[in-house]
Amino acid sequence: MSPNSLIVIYLFVISLCLACREFQDEFPVKTGLDQIDNFREIFEGKRIGIIANKTAINQKGRFITDIFSQVPEFDLKVLFGPEHGFDGKIAAGHNISDTTDHELDIPIYSLYGETRKPTPEMLNDIDILVFDIQDIGARFYTYIYTMSLAMEAAAENDIDFVILDRPNPLNGLTIEGNLLEPDFATFVGLYPIPVRHGMTVGELAMMIDGEGWLNNGIGANPTVIKIQGWRREMWFDETGLTFIPPSPNIPTLAVAIAYPGMCLFEGTNISEGRGTYNPFLRIGAPWFTMESFSHINQTIHMKGVHFGPIRFTPVSIPAMAPTPKHQDLVCNGLSINVSDRNIYNSYLTGIALVKYLYEAKKERFTWRERHFDRLCGTDKIRKFILEGRPVEEIENWISGQVESFRIKRKKYLIY
Description:
The chain is an alpha/beta fold. The chain has 2 domains: 32-246, Rossmann fold, CATH 3.40.50; 253-378, Aspartate Aminotransferase, domain 1, CATH 3.90.1150. 30% of the residues lie in helices and 13% in strands. It has helices at residues 3-26, 40-43, 64-69, 120-123, 143-156, 201-210, 253-262, 296-299, 346-360, 369-376, 380-386, 391-409, and strands at 47-52, 75-81, 99-101, 106-110, 128-132, 160-164, 223-225, 282-285, 305-312, 331-338. The strands form 2 sheets. It has a 7-stranded mixed beta sheet. Helix 5 crosses helix 6 (201-210).
C-alpha cells in the first residue's frame, strides 16, 4: 500500500472518529426509548399497551407510537393517557374521556377520568404494559401515580410492566422537603417521599415495588430499560435531550426548577402565576402594593434566588389556565429569579414566601387549607406558619426527614 493510500485511510478514520464524537456530544444521554432495539426480545410477539404523552419521543424526535407500530414483531393494541391527556394539551385537573387513535385504529383510554387505574377490561387484550412519560421530579406531579397505579393493575392481572426511563430534569442528587404522612395521601402524593425526591421514574418504580407500597403489598417486579450516559448531577439542559413541556404549565426547565416550591401557592388565594406564560415564576394578588415587597430580599434570606417586584394580569389561556385566580385583575407581586440552581431550595423558598405574604396581609390572605396540606403532605407546615415559627426551625424539622429518605433510597438507585 502506497504512503498516499495510508494517508487517505488515516484521514478517513480521523474524520469518522470526529463524526462519532460529534454525535455523542450532540446526544450524550439516551433514554429508555432510545434503547428499544437492544431489548426487542422483551416486546417481540407480545400484545402491547403504552402509557405515554407527547414527551415520549426519542433522540430523533420520533414519537413512541410511531416507533412501536412500525416494528412488525410488536403488536401495539392499546394506549393510555395521564393527566393533561395523551397529547398533553388538557388543562390541569380536567377530567378526560376515552378516545381513539384514528391513524392506528386503537383505543386511547384515559387514566384521568372515570378511573385513574387501568381496569381489567382495559388490560384484557395485552401481555405487556409500557410506561414512557417525562416526569419533573416533584412529589405532587401526578404522572408517577399514574405509573404506580398502572403497575399495580399490571401485577393484579399478571401483565409485565416495563418503564422506559428518562432523566430527572432537576438532577438526581438534590432532595428537598418533608415526607408525606399517610393521612394526607391523595393523587398528588400517595407515598412517603419528599417533595423533591431526586429519582428517575424507573428508580421510583423500584422503590414503590420494593417497599411494598402497592395495594395489599402486591409485587409488580417492573423492568426498567435504563438511561445511558446520564449522571446524577446532570440537569436536563445538560443531557442533550429536547425539553418537551410535560404539561401546559411547565413550559420550560426554569419553571420546572421553581415549581416544587411555588406550587404551594395553589393552596392559597395568592396567584401562582397561572394565566401568564411564566407560571410559578411570579406570585401576587390585587391587594398588595409594590411597597409591600420593598425589603423582601433583606427579609427572606434564601440561597440562589432573589425576588423582584412585578405587576401582572392573569388572563384566560386555554389549556394553560382557562379560569386563573384573579382573572383580568392587576396583581402586584414578585418575580422568582433563580441565580444559582445548585444551591436554590425551591420548597423552602416557597414556604418562606407563603409565610412572608401571610404575615404581610393576614386580613386578606386565605388558605385553601385542604389543598395546601395535601401539597405539603402534612398540616404541620401550615400550622408552623400560623404559629409564627421561623423558617430556620421549619428547615431543621425537614432536614432529618431528608436524610432518612436519602439513606432509604440508596438501594433503589440504578445510576
